Amino acid sequence: MANHKSAEKRARQTIKKTERNRFYRTRLKNITKAVRVAVENNDKNAANEALKIANKSIHAMVSRGFLKKQTASRRVSRLALLVNKIA
Predict the structure, then answer these.
(1) What is the DSSP code (8-state) at residue 41?
(2) 25-60 pLDDT, tens per residue?
(3) 5-21 burial string, b = 16+ CB within 10 Å, else e?
(4) Are the CB atoms for 52 and 58 separated by under 8 Å?
(5) Share of residues in the chain with pLDDT > 70 (%)
(6) Residue 16 pLDDT > 70, yes or no?
(7) What contacts 24+ positions apart, CB below 8 Å, involve 37-43?
């Protein structure tokens, strides 16, 4: 348990940040899964729509500071490769 005022504030900030990161991490997994499921089902239209949503959402996470720019680009690129394989 924190004893100093600054340590107590840090503990509060950590709780908030952990909660926020958990939300984004789960959202990222679900978005990615939607694309992968559409690809597995060979549903080209659903895969393209899911990829469009994934691209927008992943790059929004970059602007919020959850992901680094290069990480987001790599993830989107890999998803796009999967979608292009069924095209």
Answers:
(1) T
(2) 999 999 999 999 999 999 999 999 999 999 999 999
(3) eeeeeeeeeeeeeeeee
(4) no
(5) 99
(6) yes
(7) 38/83, 39/82, 39/83, 39/85, 39/86, 42/86
Report the predicted TM-score, pTM, of the whole model to 2 decimal places: 0.83
**Residue 41 burial (CB count, 10 A):** 11
Q: In angstroms, rounded to a whole number, what is the distance separating the alpha carbons of residues 6 and 20?
A: 21
Q: How far apart are CA 13 and CA 2, in angstroms?
A: 13
Whole-number Å distance between alpha carbons of 5 and 42: 56
For residue 41, the one-letter residue type is N
